[in-house]
Design goal:
Four Helix Bundle (Hemerythrin (Met), subunit A), Hemerythrin domain-containing protein, mainly alpha, Hemerythrin-like
Amino acid sequence: MTATKTKSPKTASAKTAAHKTTAKPASKRSTVVHDDAIKLLVADHKEVKALFKDYEKLVKDEADGDERQALAQKICLLLTVHATIEEEIFYPAARAAIEDGDLLDEAEVEHASAKDLIAQIEGMSPDEELYDAKVKVLGEYIEHHVKEEETELFPEVKKSDVDLAELGADLVSRKETLLAELGEDALA
């Protein structure tokens, strides 16, 4: 079972219009075909990293609050969906396949910290004190988390007998469902 999404021209133009301050498109999520779970998760990591860079540029350029908030909301949505698919599907499969449960325990604690910061950001106005700082710190949390996953956890899972193609298909399916439920329109 392969489930991929195609980007509609309307979505692509809306993203371009919404982020005129960026030099390159921030997302290739919808057009990339992922043939395994780890490739999907790494692609998500790259997408969010690019969005955090776009956010830093908006802050540097003193963009208005609405533009910063729209991008912060997109980052928060993508991180929420990503954390959910990892926690519901990837982490349990990894926990069953590898011996180092400490890696997964740490990842879950890092998710909890990120979710707390996401909730704070989502509950704020972009013009409130510390808004930009919280988005920046969230980016730093995520950067640390991604580094550990990509250098420690993912190599362990790759060495295991986990069927990464099947796991990837499950992740894609759940991700699409969550995006539909949580409002993929927020990504446009």
